[in-house]
């Protein structure tokens, strides 16, 4: 599973957050509640359910909206799977690279949004999160392309 999170030309911060999410080691409210750090397990994004890794990254409207938007942009015609299953999605070459990059970007953006919602007591729109992660992926791909085409890499 590690090779689907840690891959060539990844964004280390995105891979690190995704790796922690896969291992369920991020400090979600269900864990903080167990450690008696917070007095409520309620998710700040939806305000209804218990915040766990599964809920935060896949099982509520907000994250589903982000995934569906991202899948539509990447022309992936299916519903999102669980994080562990998504990591085993088998594409080839550049398409696979784009997908893995997108997946880690989405996980990182959702985590960032979750942390922001705790501080600001409000969450951005799911489509805005998807668009933000898509733009970050595009910037990373442009950077990779720039690396390939630079004079320095041609020597
Ligand atoms: Zn929620």
TrEMBL record:
<protein>
    <recommendedName>
        <fullName>Reverse transcriptase zinc-binding domain-containing protein</fullName>
    </recommendedName>
</protein>
<dbReference type="Pfam" id="PF13966">
    <property type="entry name" value="zf-RVT"/>
</dbReference>
<dbReference type="InterPro" id="IPR026960">
    <property type="entry name" value="RVT-Znf"/>
</dbReference>
<feature type="domain" description="Reverse transcriptase zinc-binding">
    <location>
        <begin position="3"/>
        <end position="67"/>
    </location>
</feature>
């Amino acid at each position: 599973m590690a090779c689907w999170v840690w891959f060539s030309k990844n964004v280390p911060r995105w891979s690190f957050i995704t790796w922690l999410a896969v291992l369920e080691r991020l400090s979600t409210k269900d864990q903080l509640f167990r450690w008696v750090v917070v007095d409520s397990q309620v998710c700040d994004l939806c305000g209804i359910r218990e915040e766990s890794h599964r809920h935060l990254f896949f099982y509520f409207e907000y994250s589903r909206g982000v995934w569906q938007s991202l899948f539509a942009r990447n022309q992936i015609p299916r519903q999102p799977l669980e994080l562990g299953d998504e990591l085993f999605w088998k594409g080839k070459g550049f398409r696979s690279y784009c997908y893995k990059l997108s997946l880690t970007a989405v996980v990182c953006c959702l985590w960032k949004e979750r942390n922001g919602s705790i501080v600001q007591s409000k969450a951005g729109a799911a489509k805005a999160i998807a668009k933000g992660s898509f733009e970050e992926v595009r910037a990373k791909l442009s950077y990779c392309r720039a690396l390939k085409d630079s004079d320095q890499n041609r020597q």
